[in-house]
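Course assignment 3, question 2. Fill in each field.
Student: A.L.
Task: Predict the tertiary structure for the chain below.
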Amino acid sequence: MATYVSLMKWTDQGIKSVKDTPKRFEEAVKGLETIGGKLKDLYVVMGEYDIVAIAEGPSDEAALGFLLALGAQGNVRTTTLKAFSKEEFAEIVKRLP
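Answer field:
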């Protein structure tokens, strides 16, 4: 499975209902599992972003669909990075000309 790092910022709607965030986290985990994904870690952070999630997904298409559905709820805006483990990176580098 592919790994994704999502950097999230609360929208005005999301911060106004911040007390509901733990429930929304649980719902998001269930949604991620529905597409065959898995949440590896999730942090609420201070700084430019509010939430950092590390998740696995079966494909870029499945991850994009999940993120679009999450964003459509209106509580967060996401910036997502596809991540490669050090082992995956080593294999990629071995194939360089």
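Instructor remarks: The beta strands are 2-10, 38-44, 51-57, 76-83. The first helix runs from residue 12 to 16.
Grade: pending
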